[in-house]
Amino acid sequence: MGFREYLVPYLVSNGVALAILTFAFVRPRAVRWIWAGIFVWAAAVNTLTAHQTPLAYLAYAALTPSAFYRHFIENWFSQHILLTVQTIAVGQLAIALLLANGGRARKYGVIGASIFLLAIAPLGVGSAFPFSLMAAASLLVMEWKISAATRTPVSAVAAFIPVPDVQDHHAIEIHAPSHLVFEVAKEADMRASPVVAAIFRVRGLIMRDRPRPRRARGLVAETLSLGWGVLSYVPRQTIVMGAAARPWARDVTFSAIEPGSFRTFSEPDLVKIVWSLEVEPRGEERALFRTETRAVATDLESRKKFMRYWRVFSPGIRLIRWFMLRSVKREAERRYRGTPQIKQAA
Questions:
Q1: Which residues, other chains included, contact 46 with Cβ-Cβ below 8 Å and sequence gap of 6+?
Q2: Residue 228: beta bridge partners?
Q3: Domain span including residue 130
Q4: Which pLDDT tens digit goes with each residue over 56-99?
């Protein structure tokens, strides 16, 4: 068989590999599942072919430019086709299972897949070279992007509550300069969203809170007016707010604690709460905005009360954070698009 007989599958294979490599930069998690599926499919095809038409694999000897591979196929491999191909199929299935998992298992899957793809590269047309190189590159890009997205950032609130009873973290990438994102976040009016306002109203009804007027607008200004204190502040980058409170009580009040004594504060029947607004530059026109909340009770009884409260209200609290991040993203990107001078100064 000549190269022309393999031209169509050769072009399709390389086109698919190039598309997956490009896709890995923008949707790495989707690429992980694509490769897991491809390796499951390859394992199934190899298993069926090895049992039904094993001699088909001998055609690779005429396609490889490598004398070593040609000698291997025509000699040892030709006498042990079923054993060799079935072993490869088991390995491919193992790679698929590793890729389908997270963390260290996924990394091992990427390593195994890359070794396999590089090992078949010398088959030349038989492996649609350079398909395997682009495929291995897409796996490495995928792992790099996923690892970067899941890497635990240095926590600005950990200095105040290193071991929390509850912890909540949210992040979003925004197409706007970091300093603009930070200002928008500080000024965000959480109650402007009908959904968020409804969540506050429902909580107030459940807790039987008495109505009280808003003293200030904007996230930081309003929380300061409610009694929170600033624990740390890095201009245009980070602000950490903290307070002690009894969230389970009617008409909850917040009491600021001095930053230097926050960590050791242990007045009973209270919960210490910290939350942050953090912005990390991702170039001149992009930023990663994140917020983290931590809380820890000062004694066993307050922990029991707080955990009961958290089980009921945490879905609403997390939903508020979710809406806040997207509100900041919309407003920051709107201001950035509508203010050309910011682009020039960024």
A1: 85, 86, 88, 89, 92
A2: none
A3: 3-150
A4: 999 999 989 999 999 999 999 999 999 999 999 999 999 999 99
Rounded to two decimals, what is the model's pTM?
Answer: 0.57
Dump pLDDT digits (tens) for 222-245: 999 999 999 999 999 999 999 999
> Pick from 166, 103, 192, 157: which is nearest to 275 by CA?
157
The reported pLDDT for the residue numbered 90 is 96
Complete DSSP assignment for 144-209: HHHHHHHSPPPPSSTTT-SS-SEEEEEEEEESS-HHHHHHHHHH--GGGSHHHHHHHHHHHHHHTP
Cα separation, 158 vs 146, whole angstroms = 24
Amino acid at 146: I
Tell me, yes or no, whether 98 and 10 share the same domain: yes
14 is written with which tokens? 């390389």
119 and 244: one domain? Answer: no
Count the domains in the chain: 2
pLDDT at residue 19 above 90? Answer: yes
